[in-house]
C-alpha cells in the first residue's frame, strides 16, 4: 500500500513539476518581455529567440547527461588500454581493423542493415493498409503487434522451438525441421549453417519490428485527407493506383522515419544474437562484439572503440536528416 | 510500514534467544554439527551492522546460501543481505567501477576477480587468512595460490574459496548398462574400448551438447581441460593456463584432438558430430533417460542433476563414475574442479567477521548436510554430507593425486570466456584443431 | 474508395486471405509457446509441441514394486501390481523390460528376465513378476510401456510463476518503474519536438541530426558512467535513478518520432494562430498537443513495452535485492542459477505479455485518425 502511494505521489509530483516548469518559464517570459507597449516588436523578437531553448532545455540537459557524456567517456576510453590508465592512441582501432571477427561483424551488420528495415517496413506497410480495410482488422493488428510485447528472452525461447535441431531419426521439436522431415528431407542444424543463419536471426527481428512499422504507418495512413483519395477514385484510379500513387507519396516522410528508426535499432542489435548464437557460426555483430569485449573480456578500451565505430556508422543517416530538416525550413 | 515492524520484531526475538530456530534448517545443538564454532560466533555483537553480498546464485542455490547466512545472522545479530543475479559477472564490473559495490562478491571465475584486484577494486585478505587456508584446506597452498593476484600494492590473497565443484564425472544409467551387459570403466583405455563396444552394438555411446545461448561452447572447455590432465603432466597444464606454452602447442592440440575422438565421430555421439555444437547442454543429459536411450554416457560437472528429469534419484536411476585416467601414461588420478571465490569489495568490520565465519566448520557443514556442496575443508565431519552422492564426489576430490582448477576460468576473460568457447564450437563443427588453437593463441597475443 | 462492385468483392476476399496468411505466419511461433507453456517440463524437450495436441503413442518408463512387496507362492517369490497405479488407468500397447527393446512384448506375453525371473504384463497394466529365488535390492524391475496417451496439459508452469514468492511485489515494482518512465519522457519530448518542428532558431537542423545520432548510442556504454554519476550526486540506486535513466534512453526516439509527426501538421493552422497573436506555448497546448495524440499514444506504447520488458537497466539502476526486483528479474530468478527451466519461461512470457497487450488495446482507439482528420480541414 505504501509503495502504491509513494509511486502515485511521485508520478503526480513529477508530472506537475514538468508542467510547472514549462508553464512557469513561459509565463515569466511573457511578463518580462510583454508583447504590448512601446517596445513590443523588440520584445517579440527577443522572446522568440529565448523560447525555443525553454522548450528544449530539459531534453537537452537529460540527453547531454545520459547520452552525450557517456559517448565522450567512451571516446576517451577507446584511446586507452584495458586498464583505462595508459594512453594507446589509435591502437585499439588499428587492432580492430586487423581482427577477422570485427570484419565479419561489419559484413553481418551490413546484411542486417539492408534486409531488416526493408522487410519490416514493407510488411508493416502491407499489414497497416490491409488491416484497415476489414472488419477484424484490429484483432489482426493486435496479433501482428504481439511479438513486440514479448521480451527478447521470451522471443529466444519461441524461436528455439522453430529452429531446434535433433539428429535424423529422433523426434524433432523444432517446427522447421519437423516440416522438413515430414516432407522427406534430412533435418538441418539451422543456426549453424554459415551465412544463411544470419537471415534466420534477422527473421526474428523482422517478426518483432513489423508490429512497430505497422502501428506508426497505420496512424499515418489514417491521417491522409480523404479528399485526395476520393478525387483519385473519381478519376478512375484502381485501388493499387490509389495506394501507390496517392497514399504512399503522402506518407513518404513517415516511411522514412520508420526505416530510419529500424535501421538504427538494427545497428545496435544485440539481444537476439546474444541469446541465439552469441555471434558464433559466423553471426557476430558489432553490438554483441562490443559487449563481449567490455563485459566478458573486461577490456573497455576495445569495447568502446567498437562502440565508437558503431556510432560513426550512423553518420550518413544524420547527414540525410540535416538536409531534410533544412528543406523543411525553407 | 507494518511489514518492516514485523521484521524487526522477528529479529529481536532472534537476538534474545535461539527461538528463531525455525529459520535455521538444523536446530543449534542437535546432530553431529560442530556447534562449538557456532557458539564461538556469538562472542561478537554485530547487531545493526549490514553486510551485502552479491553472487551468481538464484533460485534453489540462493535459498541454500541464505540458509548458511542465517546462522551468521542468528549468532551475531548482523543483517546480511544476499542478492543473486544471473548476469552477476557483468553487474559486479559495473557496480565496482561505478562505486556502489556490495561488501562481498562471490566470483564463479577467479579470472574476473584477478581483473578487479588489478584495478584496485578488491580488498586483500590478511596473512592469517592465508595461513588458515593453507593449513586447513586439502591441498591448501594451491587454494591460496589460486586466489593470490597482482594488486596495486603487489601480490596478495584476494579471496577465499568456499563451495567447490567436481568436473571429472561421467554420468550413466546403471540399468541401461545392465541391459547392454557393460560395466563402468576403471581406466581411459577401458572407457575408449567401452565407447567402441557400445557403438558396435548399434547404440550411441555419448551425449555431448555445447549449446548454452550466450556461453555456447563452454562444456567443451571442460572436456579439453580434463583430457589435458590425462595426457600431460600437471605442470604442462599450468603452463598452458598461464600461456607459458602457446595455445597451439602440440600438447594442447593433442588434448583437443582427444576430445575430437569422442565428439567428432558420428558413431560416438548422439545425433552425430553435427549435433554436438547446437545441442543445448541442458537438454543433452535427457538422452540418457529416453527409451530407447539416445546415449549411455555423459561427461559433465556435479551440478548437472538439476537438469535430469523430475524425480530422478541419483545413485539409483542414474549414477556417475570418475572420468578415468590412462593407465599407460602414469599421470595418477587427476581431478578437474571449480569453485566460487568470495572476495571483499567493500571493507567493514562485519564483512571481516563474515569472512571469518566462512572459516568455521559450521558454515561448511550446514550446506554440506543439505545438497550440492563440496568442500576441501579438512575440519568438517564428512559424515554430514546430505546424500551419499555428495560423499562419493567428495571422495573423488580427496582421492585425487592432482587437483587442477578449471583452466578456462583462470584464463583472461577474452580467452576463457571468449575465443576458447567459440574456437571449440568451430572445432566441433569440423575445423582442424591446429587451426583453431592457432586462432586462440593469436587472440591471446593480441591482449598482452 | 468504392470501386466497381465485382472487383471490390474479389479484392476484399484477397485482402481477407492475405491478412489471414500474415496473421498465421506471425502467430504460429507464439502459439507454439502458448501450447508449450501448458506442457510438462520433461515432455517439452522431448517431443514437438504440435504432437501434444493429439493422442500419441508414448513410451513410459514404469517400475514394479520393490522386493519389499514380494510374497512367497510355493517355490516362487512373486510381486503383483499395476504399472499405472498412482497416475490412473492406461492401456498397454506393447512393453519391454530392456531399454534396448522397449516394445518387445505384446500384452499378456511373458518375458524371461534371466536368473529365473519372469515378468508378465496385461493390457490394463497389471503385472506379475516372479522369481525362483528371493529378490534382493531396494528397487523394482524397470518396465517400458508403450501406450496411447491422450493430450496432457498442466497448469503447473503457471502455478509456479504466479505462486512464486514476491511476485506480487515485483509486479508492483514494475509498475512503479514503468509508468513514470513512460510519462516523463513523453512530456519532456513533446516540448522539444515542437520546438524542433515549428520554432525558428539557429542550429535547429544540427540539433535534429544530433537527436538521430543519439538514437544509436548503445545502452551498455552508458551504464558505468551513469551509475557513477548517480552515486556521486547521492542518488544511488533507486526509483528516481531508474526513471531518469529510462527517460534519457527513451528521449531520442520520442523526440524523433514526435518531431516528425508534428512537422507534418498543416502549416495554415499554426501560422493562423500565430497571426491571431497566440504565443508558442498556447499553440502547443491548444492545437499541437491534441492533434498529436496518435503519435503520443504510439510512442507511449513503445516506451511502456520497452521499460516493461527491460531487465538490464533495472538491475543496474535499481538493484537486485528482494524489495527492488522487477517482474523480469523475478522471472529470471525462477529460471534457476543455470537458466534451464524453460517451462517457467514459457508461462512467464505469457503472463508478462498480458499487460502490454491490455495497454495496446486500450491505446488503440487513440491511434485512429479521429482527432486528426476531424480538425484538419
From TrEMBL, chain A:
It comes from the Bacteria. Belongs to the binding-protein-dependent transport system permease family. InterPro entries: ABC_transporter_permease, MetI-like, MetI-like_sf. This is Sugar ABC transporter permease. Residues 106-321 form the ABC transmembrane type-1 domain. It is found in: Cell membrane. GO terms for cellular component: plasma membrane. Keywords: Cell membrane, Membrane, Transmembrane, Transmembrane helix, Transport. It is a multi-pass membrane protein. One of its GO terms (biological process) is transmembrane transport. The lineage of its organism: Bacteria, Pseudomonadati, Pseudomonadota, Alphaproteobacteria, Rhodobacterales. The chain crosses the membrane at residues 6-29, 50-69, 110-131, 143-162, 199-221, 255-276, 300-322. The keyword Membrane applies. Pfam families: BPD_transp_1. PROSITE patterns: ABC_TM1.
Automatic annotation (TrEMBL), chain B:
Its main location: periplasm. GO terms for cellular component: periplasmic space. It comes from the Bacteria. Residues 1-21 form the signal peptide. It holds the Pfam family SBP_bac_1. Keywords: Signal, Transport. It is found in: Periplasm. SUPFAM superfamilies: Periplasmic binding protein-like II. Belongs to the bacterial solute-binding protein 1 family. This is Carbohydrate ABC transporter substrate-binding protein. It comes from Mangrovicoccus algicola.
Automatic annotation (TrEMBL), chain C:
GO terms for cellular component: plasma membrane. The keyword Kinase does not apply. Residues 171-363 form the ABC transmembrane type-1 domain. It comes from the Bacteria. Keywords: Cell membrane, Membrane, Transmembrane, Transmembrane helix, Transport. It is a multi-pass membrane protein. The keyword Iron-sulfur does not apply. It is found in: Cell membrane. GO terms for biological process: transmembrane transport. Belongs to the binding-protein-dependent transport system permease family. This is Carbohydrate ABC transporter permease. The lineage of its organism: Bacteria, Pseudomonadati, Pseudomonadota, Alphaproteobacteria, Rhodobacterales.
Amino acid at each position: 500500500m505504501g509503495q502504491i502511494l509513494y509511486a502515485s505521489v511521485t508520478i503526480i509530483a513529477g508530472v506537475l513539476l514538468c508542467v510547472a516548469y514549462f508553464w512557469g518559464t513561459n509565463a515569466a517570459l511573457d511578463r518580462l518581455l510583454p508583447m504590448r507597449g512601446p517596445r513590443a516588436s523588440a520584445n517579440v523578437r527577443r522572446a522568440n529567440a529565448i523560447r525555443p531553448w525553454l522548450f528544449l532545455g530539459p531534453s537537452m540537459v537529460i540527453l547531454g547527461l545520459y547520452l552525450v557524456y557517456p559517448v565522450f567517456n567512451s571516446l576517451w576510453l577507446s584511446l586507452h588500454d584495458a586498464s583505462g590508465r595508459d594512453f594507446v592512441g589509435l591502437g585499439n582501432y588499428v587492432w580492430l581493423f586487423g581482427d577477422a571477427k570485427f570484419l565479419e561483424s561489419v559484413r553481418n551488420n551490413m546484411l542486417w542493415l539492408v534486409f531488416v528495415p526493408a522487410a519490416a517496413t514493407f510488411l508493416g506497410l502491407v499489414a497497416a493498409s490491409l488491416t484497415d480495410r476489414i472488419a477484424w482488422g484490429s484483432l489482426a493488428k493486435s496479433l501482428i503487434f504481439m511479438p513486440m510485447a514479448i521480451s527478447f528472452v521470451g522471443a529466444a525461447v519461441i524461436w528455439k522451438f522453430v529452429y531446434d535441431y535433433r539428429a535424423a531419426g529422433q523426434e524433432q521439436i523444432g517446427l522447421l525441421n519437423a516440416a522438413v522431415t515430414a516432407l522427406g528431407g534430412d533435418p538441418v542444424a539451422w543456426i549453424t549453417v554459415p551465412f544463411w543463419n544470419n537471415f534466420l536471426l534477422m527473421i526474428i527481428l523482422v517478426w518483432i519490428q513489423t508490429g512497430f512499422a505497422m502501428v506508426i504507418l497505420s496512424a499515418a495512413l489514417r491521417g491522409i485527407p480523404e479528399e485526395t483519395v476520393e478525387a483519385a477514385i473519381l478519376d478512375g484510379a484502381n485501388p493499387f493506383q490509389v495506394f501507390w500513387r496517392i497514399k504512399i507519396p503522402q506518407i513518404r516522410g513517415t516511411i522514412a522515419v520508420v526505416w530510419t528508426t529500424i535501421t538504427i535499432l538494427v545497428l545496435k542489435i544485440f539481444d537476439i544474437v546474444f541469446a541465439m548464437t552469441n555471434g558464433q557460426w559466423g553471426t557476430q555483430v558489432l553490438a554483441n562484439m562490443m559487449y563481449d569485449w567490455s563485459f566478458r573480456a573486461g577490456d573497455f578500451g576495445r569495447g568502446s572503440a567498437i562502440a565508437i565505430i558503431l556510432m560513426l556508422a550512423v553518420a550518413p543517416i544524420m547527414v540525410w536528416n540535416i538536409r531534410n530538416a533544412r528543406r523543411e525550413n525553407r | 510500514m507494518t511489514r518492516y515492524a514485523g521484521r524487526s520484531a522477528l529479529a529481536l526475538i532472534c537476538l534474545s534467544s535461539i527461538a528463531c530456530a525455525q529459520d535455521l534448517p538444523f536446530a543449534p545443538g542437535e546432530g553431529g554439527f560442530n556447534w562449538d564454532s557456532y557458539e564461538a560466533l556469538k562472542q561478537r555483537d554485530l547487531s545493526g551492522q549490514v553486510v551485502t553480498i552479491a553472487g551468481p546464485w538464484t533460485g534453489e542455490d540462493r535459498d541454500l546460501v541464505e540458509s548458511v547466512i542465517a546462522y551468521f545472522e542468528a549468532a551475531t545479530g548482523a543483517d546480511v543481505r544476499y542478492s543473486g543475479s544471473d548476469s552477476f559477472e557483468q553487474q559486479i564490473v559495473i557496480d565496482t567501477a561505478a562505486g556502489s559495490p556490495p561488501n562481498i562478491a562471490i566470483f564463479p571465475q577467479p579470472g574476473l576477480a584477478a581483473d578487479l584486484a588489478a584495478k584496485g577494486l578488491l580488498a586483500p585478505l590478511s596473512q592469517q587468512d592465508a595461513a588458515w587456508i593453507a593449513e586447513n584446506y586439502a591441498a591448501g597452498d594451491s587454494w591460496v595460490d589460486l586466489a593470490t593476484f597482482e594488486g596495486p600494492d603487489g601480490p596478495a590473497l584476494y579471496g577465499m574459496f568456499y563451495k567447490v565443484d567436481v568436473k571429472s564425472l561421467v554420468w550413466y544409467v546403471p540399468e541401461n548398462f545392465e541391459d547392454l551387459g557393460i560395466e563402468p570403466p576403471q581406466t581411459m583405455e577401458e572407457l575408449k574400448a567401452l565407447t567402441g563396444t557400445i557403438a558396435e552394438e548399434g547404440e550411441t555411446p555419448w551425449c555431448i551438447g555445447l549449446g548454452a545461448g550466450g556461453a555456447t561452447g563452454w562444456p567443451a572447455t571442460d572436456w579439453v581441460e580434463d583430457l589435458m590432465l590425462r595426457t600431460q603432466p600437471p605442470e604442462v597444464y599450468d603452463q598452458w593456463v598461464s600461456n607459458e606454452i602457446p595455445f597451439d602447442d602440440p600438447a594442447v592440440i593433442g588434448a583437443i584432438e582427444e576430445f575430437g575422438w569422442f565428439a567428432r565421430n558420428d558413431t560416438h555421439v548422439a545425433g552425430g558430430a553435427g549435433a554436438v555444437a547446437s545441442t543445448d547442454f541442458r537438454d543433452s543429459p535427457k538422452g540418457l533417460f529416453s527409451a530407447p536411450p539416445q546415449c549411455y554416457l555423459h561427461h559433465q560437472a556435479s551440478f548437472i542433476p538439476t537438469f535430469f528429469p523430475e524425480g530422478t534419484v541419483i545413485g539409483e536411476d542414474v549414477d556417475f563414475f570418475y572420468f578415468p585416467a590412462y593407465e599407460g601414461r602414469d599421470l595418477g588420478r587427476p581431478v578437474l574442479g571449480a569453485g566460487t571465490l568470495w572476495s571483499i569489495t567493500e571493507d567493514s568490520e562485519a564483512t571481516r567477521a563474515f569472512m571469518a565465519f566462512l572459516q568455521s566448520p559450521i558454515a561448511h557443514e550446514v550446506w554440506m548436510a543439505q545438497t550440492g556442496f563440496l568442500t576441501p575443508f579438512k575440519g568438517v565431519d564428512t559424515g554430514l554430507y546430505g546424500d551419499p552422492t555428495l560423499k562419493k564426489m567428495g571422495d573423488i576430490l580427496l582421492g585425487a593425486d592432482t587437483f587442477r582448477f578449471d583452466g578456462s576460468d583462470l584464463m583472461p576473460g577474452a580467452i576463457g570466456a571468449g575465443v576458447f568457447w567459440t574456437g571449440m564450437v568451430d572445432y566441433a563443427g569440423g575445423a582442424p584443431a591446429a587451426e583453431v588453437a592457432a586462432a586462440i593463441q593469436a587472440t591471446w597475443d593480441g591482449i598482452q | 474508395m468504392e470501386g466497381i462492385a465485382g472487383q471490390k468483392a474479389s479484392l476484399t476476399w484477397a485482402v481477407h486471405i492475405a491478412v489471414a496468411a500474415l496473421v498465421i505466419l506471425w502467430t504460429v511461433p507464439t502459439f507454439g509457446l502458448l501450447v508449450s507453456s501448458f506442457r510438462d517440463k520433461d515432455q517439452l524437450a522431448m517431443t514437438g509441441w504440435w504432437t501434444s495436441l493429439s493422442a500419441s503413442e508414448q513410451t513410459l518408463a514404469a517400475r514394479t514394486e520393490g522386493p519389499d512387496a514380494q510374497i512367497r507362492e510355493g517355490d516362487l517369490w512373486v510381486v503383483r501390481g499395476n504399472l499405472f497405479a498412482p497416475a490412473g488407468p492406461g492401456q498397454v500397447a506393447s512393453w519391454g523390460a530392456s531399454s534396448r527393446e522397449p516394445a518387445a512384448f505384446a500384452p499378456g506375453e511373458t518375458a524371461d528376465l534371466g536368473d529365473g525371473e519372469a515378468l508378465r504384463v496385461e493390457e490394463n497394466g497389471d503385472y506379475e513378476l516372479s522369481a525362483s529365488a528371493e529378490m534382493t535390492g531396494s528397487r523394482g524391475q524397470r518396465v517400458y510401456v508403450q501406450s496411447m496417451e491422450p493430450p496432457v496439459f498442466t497448469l503447473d508452469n503457471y502455478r509456479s510463476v504466479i505462486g512464486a514468492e514476491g511476485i506480487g511485489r515485483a509486479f508492483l515494482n514494475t509498475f512503479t518503474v514503468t509508468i513514470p518512465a513512460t510519462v516523463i519522457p513523453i512530456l519532456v519530448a513533446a516540448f522539444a519536438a515542437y520546438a524542433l518542428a515549428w520554432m525558428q532558431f539557429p542550429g535547429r537542423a544540427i540539433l535534429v541530426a544530433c537527436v538521430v545520432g543519439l538514437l544509436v548510442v548503445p545502452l551498455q556504454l552508458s551504464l558505468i558512467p551513469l551509475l557513477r554519476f548517480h552515486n556521486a550526486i547521492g542518488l544511488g540506486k533507486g526509483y528516481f535513478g531508474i526513471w531518469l535513466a529510462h527517460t534519457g534512453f527513451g528521449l531520442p526516439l520520442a523526440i524523433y518520432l514526435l518531431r516528425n509527426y508534428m512537422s507534418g501538421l498543416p502549416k495554415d493552422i499554426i501560422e493562423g494562430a500565430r497571426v491571431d497573436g497566440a504565443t508558442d506555448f498556447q499553440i502547443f497546448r491548444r492545437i499541437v498537443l491534441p492533434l498529436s495524440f496518435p503519435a503520443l499514444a504510439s510512442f507511449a506504447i513503445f516506451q511502456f513495452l520497452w521499460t516493461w520488458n527491460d531487465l538490464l537497466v533495472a538491475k543496474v539502476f535499481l538493484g537486485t535485492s528482494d524489495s527492488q526486483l522487477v517482474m523480469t528479474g523475478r522471472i529470471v530468478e525462477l529460471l534457476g542459477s543455470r537458466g534451464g527451466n524453460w517451462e517457467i519461461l514459457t508461462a512467464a512470457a505469457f503472463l508478462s505479455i498480458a499487460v502490454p497487450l491490455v495497454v495496446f488495446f486500450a491505446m488503440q482507439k487513440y491511434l485512429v485518425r479521429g482527432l486528426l482528420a476531424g480538425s484538419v480541414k
